[in-house]
């Protein structure tokens, strides 16, 4: 049923079987496009001509009463035909046009920078004053010279087109601009339907060559004329029509074909674009090799139509004879300017762009489910202003490119840098060592490309995560301090294979002795009595296992979760003794968020990437907000800061600290997994947290045995992290983070 797929046709229309009616109105609609011609009987032709005469005579009634068309068409004044026309819907709900949506970053001066555009129809809706008068005059002169005189249906033009058809000529279009606008609006309503079968049925119904459609468009056109001013109808028409391919509306056409705006189009340019609308396949200007309409013949087909339009403009005194002569002498010289589409156009920011699109899929602002949200975003004309800091992003892209190659022989190499603003969760930088593509034909044939974002969780376009190694130890440190232990407290930390039983109030006591579990220290340290502070500075595995032995494994896992730490694959965190030293697989962004929480006096803010969303009407829409929760008390955070500052100045992260300029108060922690297959540097000032990591996407590779052009693979993190944090410190500054150290040593005994 047509009504099921066409919201503009709530009534099922009866079919008209009168042969005179069918033949009188069986021609194509709109812009001179051909419909179809069928063999006519003499009686049919006579009936059609009678209908045409009736139309011509009753043109005034057509506009004033909105009843005469049916009478005129049938040539029989019956109450039934009048009732049919009167019962048709006389309204047309004009919804938002499908427009491209944009994702922006922002320069330090506040100016927006386009990262990527997304569209199904490349359209930019513009106001009346932003359309060249040449475009308006060319459209009216060539398509509907009596546009400002009729009330929606041009009886004279319709009759002329029908006569040409009946006399054996090519099928002619007789629709007014308003009727063509109605048809385009109805097509638009079909195209936003998500079900392919329903969409096709809807499209067939609103484009079929039939008396039903013609009468419906007439009725709706009259209703449009009653509701909207002429200028607004013309403006809407110029914004909705297609110009070939995915180019819709005069503004996008001006940009695509001539690299200019609709307002700045010259007379010959305006006429050549209006020509395209008549038959986009025949007249479009982006096929330079075309034998009939290409650069070799001066775009002959388009020029012929363009020059006809110019003659009509002169005929109706819209241009002077001198303007006409100059315009027809002007060559057609398109400047095809491909619009950006998709995150691949965002360069090194493409993975951040991809992250934003996944956030939009999860945002109910755009629809009820993921598919509907992405579709609405691609059609809705939204402007998304993101949190990306281009200064930090450029630093991240530059240092990553300088220090880590996109590929390495025999190694599935990955590298990431991601930064988060402390206290807000705003993602400031995100990049990786691959070129972005979502095309399987590209990603499956070249290791330099990837559609997977190594920075983020799996459901955000990312991977299943990477082991963070010793950077994860900070959560055991947090639980240690939160349960009343101190930095100076010492634990049994000698390497061994009989650690005994670990407390776990979630799963019960855990014992690994039967497995022969015998963790070692990265540098082979064998100290038996490390303090919590010493274990942190030297990243001593057995020291932290000794701390966990005095804690509860489930509580350590829950403490990590309090810092918004979660498995990248969406699964629960492991809470074994081995997980204490970093075996959970996490997204780098997750670790950046957690370190920002430590620097924020123990309050962690979930990541956000969107500052503003503005719809096509300029209305601000709600954006996803960061959730800030207390992960540890400020007192506990102060103890963590004390230890982690000293990791920077006298521990395993001195290489990163030493080359960061300018220096502010900073905390940090390094991480190296078994066999040095993943190496991490995570740290923060009071303003910005950054993670830099070189990882094995699949398989194993010992980074200590691999050398890049920039130096050892294992130390690339210490070349990249300072490059980003130097820019962050210079731009954002930083204050001393509150810290609380070990109790002062007792004074020596008196003698």
Automatic annotation (TrEMBL):
The chain crosses the membrane at residues 41-67. SUPFAM superfamilies: beta-lactamase/transpeptidase-like (SSF56601), Lysozyme-like (SSF53955). InterPro entries: Beta-lactam/transpept-like, Glyco_trans_51, Glycosyltr_51/Transpeptidase, Lysozyme-like_dom_sf, PBP_transglycosylase, PCN-bd_Tpept. It holds the Pfam family Transpeptidase. This is Penicillin-binding protein. Keywords: Carboxypeptidase, Glycosyltransferase, Hydrolase, Membrane, Multifunctional enzyme, Protease, Transferase, Transmembrane, Transmembrane helix. GO terms for molecular function: penicillin binding; peptidoglycan glycosyltransferase activity; serine-type D-Ala-D-Ala carboxypeptidase activity. It catalyses: Preferential cleavage: (Ac)2-L-Lys-D-Ala-|-D-Ala. Also transpeptidation of peptidyl-alanyl moieties that are N-acyl substituents of D-alanine; [GlcNAc-(1->4)-Mur2Ac(oyl-L-Ala-gamma-D-Glu-L-Lys-D-Ala-D-Ala)](n)-di-trans,octa-cis-undecaprenyl diphosphate + beta-D-GlcNAc-(1->4)-Mur2Ac(oyl-L-Ala-gamma-D-Glu-L-Lys-D-Ala-D-Ala)-di-trans,octa-cis-undecaprenyl diphosphate = [GlcNAc-(1->4)-Mur2Ac(oyl-L-Ala-gamma-D-Glu-L-Lys-D-Ala-D-Ala)](n+1)-di-trans,octa-cis-undecaprenyl diphosphate + di-trans,octa-cis-undecaprenyl diphosphate + H(+). Residues 419-702 form the Penicillin-binding protein transpeptidase domain. Residues 115-314 form the Glycosyl transferase family domain. It comes from the Bacteria. GO terms for biological process: peptidoglycan biosynthetic process; proteolysis. One of its GO terms (cellular component) is outer membrane-bounded periplasmic space.
């Amino acid at each position: 049923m047509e009504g099921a797929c066409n919201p503009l046709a709530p009534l099922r229309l009866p079919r008209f079987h009168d042969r005179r009616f069918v033949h009188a109105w069986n021609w194509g609609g709109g812009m001179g496009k051909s419909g179809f011609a069928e063999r006519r009987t003499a009686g049919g032709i006579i009936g059609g001509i009678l209908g045409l005469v009736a139309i011509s005579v009753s043109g005034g009634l057509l506009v004033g009463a909105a009843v005469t068309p049916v009478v005129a068409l049938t040539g029989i004044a019956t109450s039934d035909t009048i009732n049919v026309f009167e019962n048709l819907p006389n309204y047309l709900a004009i919804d938002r046009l499908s427009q491209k949506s944009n994702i922006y970053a922002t320069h330090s001066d506040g100016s927006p920078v386009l990262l990527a555009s997304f569209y199904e129809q490349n359209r930019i809706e513009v106001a009346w004053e932003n359309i060249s008068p040449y475009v308006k005059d060319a459209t009216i002169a060539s398509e509907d010279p009596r546009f400002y005189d009729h009330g929606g249906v041009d009886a004279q033009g319709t009759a002329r087109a029908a006569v040409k058809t009946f006399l054996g000529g090519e099928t002619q279009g007789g629709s007014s601009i308003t009727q063509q606008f109605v048809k385009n609006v109805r097509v638009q309503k079909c195209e936003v339907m998500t079900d392919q079968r329903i969409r096709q049925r809807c499209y067939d119904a609103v484009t079929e060559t039939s008396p039903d459609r013609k009468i419906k468009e007439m009725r709706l056109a009259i209703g449009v004329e009653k509701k909207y001013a002429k200028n607004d109808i013309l403006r809407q028409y110029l914004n909705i029509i297609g110009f070939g391919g995915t180019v819709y509306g005069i503004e996008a056409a001006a940009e695509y074909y001539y690299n200019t705006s609709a307002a700045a189009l010259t007379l010959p340019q305006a006429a050549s674009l209006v020509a395209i609308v008549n038959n986009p396949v025949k007249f479009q200007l982006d096929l330079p090799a075309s034998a009939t309409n290409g650069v070799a013949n001066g775009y002959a087909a388009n020029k012929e139509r363009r020059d006809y339009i110019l003659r009509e403009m002169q005929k109706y005194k819209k241009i002077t004879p001198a303007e006409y002569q100059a315009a027809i002498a002007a060559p057609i010289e398109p400047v095809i300017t491909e619009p950006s589409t998709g995150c691949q156009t965002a360069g090194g920011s493409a993975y951040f762009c991809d992250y934003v699109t996944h956030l939009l899929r999860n945002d109910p602002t755009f629809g009820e489910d993921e598919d509907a949200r992405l579709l609405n975003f691609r059609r809705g004309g939204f402007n998304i202003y993101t949190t990306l800091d281009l200064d930090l992003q450029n630093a991240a892209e530059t240092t990553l490119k300088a220090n880590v190659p996109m590929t390495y022989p025999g190694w599935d190499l990955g590298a990431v840098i991601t930064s988060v603003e402390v206290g807000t969760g705003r993602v400031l930088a995100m990049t990786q060592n691959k070129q972005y593509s979502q095309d399987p034909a590209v990603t499956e044939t070249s290791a330099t490309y990837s559609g997977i974002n190594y920075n983020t969780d799996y459901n955000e376009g990312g991977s299943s995560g990477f082991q963070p190694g010793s950077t994860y130890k900070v959560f055991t440190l947090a639980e240690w301090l939160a349960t009343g232990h101190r930095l100076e407290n010492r634990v049994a930390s000698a390497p061994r294979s009989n650690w005994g039983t670990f407390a776990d109030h979630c799963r019960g006591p855990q014992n690994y002795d039967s497995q022969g579990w015998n963790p070692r220290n990265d540098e082979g340290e064998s100290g038996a009595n490390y303090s919590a502070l010493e274990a942190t500075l030297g990243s001593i595995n057995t020291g932290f296992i000794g701390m966990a032995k005095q804690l509860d494994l489930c509580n350590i896992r829950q403490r990590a979760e309090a810092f918004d730490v979660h498995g990248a694959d969406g699964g629960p965190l492991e809470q074994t003794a081995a997980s204490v030293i970093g075996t959970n697989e996490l997204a780098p962004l997750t670790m950046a968020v957690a370190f920002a929480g430590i620097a924020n006096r123990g309050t962690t803010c979930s990541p956000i990437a969107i500052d503003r969303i503005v719809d096509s009407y300029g209305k601000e829409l709600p954006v996803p907000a960061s959730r800030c929760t207390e992960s540890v008390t400020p007192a506990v955070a102060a103890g963590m800061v004390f230890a982690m500052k000293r990791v920077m100045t006298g521990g395993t992260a001195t290489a990163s600290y030493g080359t960061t300029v300018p220096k502010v108060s900073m905390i940090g922690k390094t991480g190296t997994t078994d066999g040095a297959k993943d190496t991490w540097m995570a740290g923060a000032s009071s303003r910005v947290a950054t993670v830099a990591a070189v990882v094995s996407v699949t398989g194993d590779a010992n980074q200590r045995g691999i050398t890049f052009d920039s130096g050892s693979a294992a130390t690339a993190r210490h070349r990249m992290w300072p490059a980003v944090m130097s820019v962050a410190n210079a731009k954002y500054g930083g204050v001393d983070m509150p810290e609380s150290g070990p109790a002062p040593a007792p004074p020596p005994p008196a003698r």
